[in-house]
Amino acid sequence: MNALLTPDYGLIFWTIVNFLLLVFLLGKFAWKPIIGALEARENKISQDKKDAQEARDEAQKIKAELDVRLSNISKEAQEKLAQVEALAKQQKDAMIKDAQASSERMIATAKEEIEAQKNQALKEVKKEIADMAVEAAAKIAGVKTDPKTDAALVDNIVKDIINKA
Known about the structure:
Blueprint: H1 2-5, H2 9-141, H3 147-164
Helix pairs in contact: 2-3
């Protein structure tokens, strides 16, 4: 027990020499590679942080561009929708105008046809009246007339009737 508590100066000397030799050798051969590896790792971490920040900045820039594009697309869509609505309204108005014009033409055509049929009916009635008047006059007179005379007489009677109407 005494031997453990008593220092051996030779052992202390060689322990110190070994320690200093170990420190020297580690400093000469191992310390630089360890420090180099630590610095390389620190540089890599620093570079990764820079790259991550650049990527984050780029992502924010792209997001901002996409937001602008989305806004522009939304505006364009609204403009297109407004144009389509305006075009649809124009087409609707044009169709209504065409339908009105068509109905007015149909009404005018129908009125013209009615007027033509009325005039034709009046002519036929007047001709029949004139024929009946000629026949009645011929019966009263008891005279047989030729067709030329009948036609001239009918024309005169028709003219008289037309002038009176």
